[in-house]
Amino acid sequence: MGKNLESARNKWRQLKETSTFHDVVLFLVFVAVSALFWVILALNDSAQDSFNVRVAVVNCPDSVTFISDIPEKIHVTVRDKGTTLWRNHYRHPSMNINFEEYASDGELKYSRNDIVTSLKSIFGSASQIISISRDSIHLDYTTNKGKRVPVVVRGNIFAASGSVIEGALKPQPSNVLVYGEQSVIDTIHRVLTEQISLTDLSETTVVDVDLQRIKDARIIPSVVSVTVPVEPLVRKEALITITPENVPHGESLLLFPSKVPVVYYVAMSRLGDNDDPNIELLVDYNSIKYSRSGKLHVQVSRYPDRLKNLSLKNDSVEFTIVKN
């Protein structure tokens, strides 16, 4: 290994001493210098390029809330020397609008001439502004305090088979501030979310959703997180007493059995609840004349919506009429 390395060094020293090597090095130096001069000359030529200029409103009092959206940036096409354009790309140009100078009576007005003047100060007086994405900037604002209103969630949301949406959809924050002229915010009593569409949910899900915009008003924050509480369904069974109805005065209706098993499903967190008082079963005395089997049909007359897939193990019972 050492002999090979020494041999390579010797060959390199011999190569450096040849006239051919010196000619090649000299040629490469001239090429590099020529390329450098070419780049310098090219950059000094007039060229055209586009920039995204950031927009910021400065010297704005804390009491001011803008109703209009402040543009994040404007797109500008500039003609100037290549070196100047290249240098501006690394400066991240920004246009600052002085609130105290351009705002009055709920409006901030920044004309095209104001924009051009600002861009000239950014890119230099020798630059030529070819095009601007905005002719002017007009922003409405208010100094009124915000009105706190509740958020109402709108959506078509469905749980997967074997699961249930247990409880209300919960926006966070549940209240937001609405800003605007007093005549506008006096008419606003709630804020709606954009429509949420979710299906086949098998676990609790959190989604970020935009709030619906309101004309001439600003909502802060404009996005809320909505929690959709999803739980697995579990099976329950209860023995529920049947209540006769429409029994004539002086008679009683004895049922056999007087209680029947009811099967249903509830959210796991509701497994320990006593649902019996909320389930009502009936038999109708007036249906006796239509009975050919000697039995009465049991009807489920009432149960809460949170009980899912409720069914009876026995949907008919025998009966006896007793004269009082």
Features:
324 residues, alpha+beta, 4-stranded mixed beta sheet, 6 helices, 26 strands
What are the segments in which pLDDT stays under 50 over at least 5 consecutive residues? none
Structural class, from secondary structure content? alpha+beta
Number of strands: 26
Helix content: 10-25%
Which oligomeric form is depicted?
A: single chain
How would you describe this structure to a colleague?
There is one protein chain. The protein has 324 residues and is α+β, with helices and mostly antiparallel strands. The protein has six helices and 26 strands. The protein has helices at 2-16, 19-44, 82-89, 99-102, 112-123, 182-185, and strands at residues 46-58, 65-66, 73-81, 94-98, 103-104, 107-110, 128-132, 137-142, 147-152, 155-159, 163-165, 170-172, 175-180, 191-192, 196-201, 205-210, 217-220, 223-228, 230-245, 251-256, 259-267, 280-284, 295-297, 299-302, 308-312, 316-323. The termini are far apart. The mean pLDDT is 87.
Please give a quick description of this structure.
The protein has six helices and 26 strands. The protein is α+β, with helices and mostly antiparallel strands and 324 residues long.
Layout: helices, strands, pairs:
Blueprint: H1 2-16, H2 19-44, E1 46-58, E2 65-66, E3 73-81, H3 82-89, E4 94-98, H4 99-102, E5 103-104, E6 107-110, H5 112-123, E7 128-132, E8 137-142, E9 147-152, E10 155-159, E11 163-165, E12 170-172, E13 175-180, H6 182-185, E14 191-192, E15 196-201, E16 205-210, E17 217-220, E18 223-228, E19 230-245, E20 251-256, E21 259-267, E22 280-284, E23 295-297, E24 299-302, E25 308-312, E26 316-323
Parallel strand pairs: 1-4, 9-14, 10-15, 19-22
Antiparallel strand pairs: 1-3, 2-8, 3-7, 5-6, 6-8, 9-13, 11-19, 12-18, 13-17, 16-18, 19-21, 20-26, 21-25, 22-24, 23-26
Helix pairs in contact: 2-3
